[in-house]
Write a structure and sequence with these properties.
The chain has about 120 residues and is mainly alpha-helical. It has one domain. It contains 4 helices and 2 strands.
């Protein structure tokens, strides 16, 4: 019961590089890049909308500015955090994930060797 567990790969398994992972990594990278571009577009739309609102407010006469009012600065700060800062943090995180996936894709190592059984090889072919 106290004997150490030894991981021996059976002889029926062949050692092969994880070439089957390459299409998965390419798909993963493409999806993450798509997600990054969607988030960046959302941020750009928000910033454009804010500029339009600010221009519209500034173009009003003084009397209309007094009547219509302006969003308080703390509301704008909360909007900025919600629509810009948090999404851009997610973009930075996604870029790190993409960079890590590209590193795995471009720099294979000894740990990338995968043992596959003959049955599995026959099923994939």
């Amino acid at each position: 019961m106290t004997d150490p567990v030894v991981h021996n790969v059976p002889s029926r398994f062949k050692s092969r590089k994880a070439a089957d992972v390459i299409p998965f990594l390419n798909t993963y990278i493409a999806k993450k890049e798509q997600e990054i571009s969607e988030i960046e577009q959302m941020v750009e739309r928000y910033e454009k909308r804010r500029m339009i609102e600010e221009r519209a407010y500034q173009s009003k006469s003084t009397l209309r500015r007094l009547i219509s009012g302006k969003k308080p600065d703390h509301h704008l700060a909360v909007e900025y955090i919600h629509y810009v800062k948090k999404p851009m943090e997610k973009v930075r995180q996604l870029r790190k994930e993409v960079e890590k996936a590209r590193e795995i894709l471009n720099n294979p190592s000894e740990a990338d060797v995968v043992a596959r059984s003959n049955e599995l090889i026959d099923d994939t072919n």
